[in-house]
Fold:
Amino acid sequence: MLVTRIFATMSQNIRTHMLRVRCSDDEWNDLKKQADDAGLSMSALVRDHLGKLTIRNRTDERKRLAMLNRINANLNMIARWVNTHKSRAETVQIVSHLIAIQRNIKDLSP
Structure:
């Protein structure tokens, strides 16, 4: 019974698909070093890391970057206004708004 279970488990783990990836010399050497340091083959290292990677959607990243750029432009306008109207600026109110903006920016960070 145990032998049957072992063979059944082994047959489920047979790898029938191959992925070929082109690497630069630096990428190859880096991958080889990581595999050697971990005591794994390069294939085992890649399989081990498959579930541990976080893939970012590039479209979402571009949108996030555009939003951060707009926020940055607005902050620059606020800073210019504050520097121009120092005597009339209600500093406490402006600082509290800037702190709120800073918190929102932190929420946008990955």
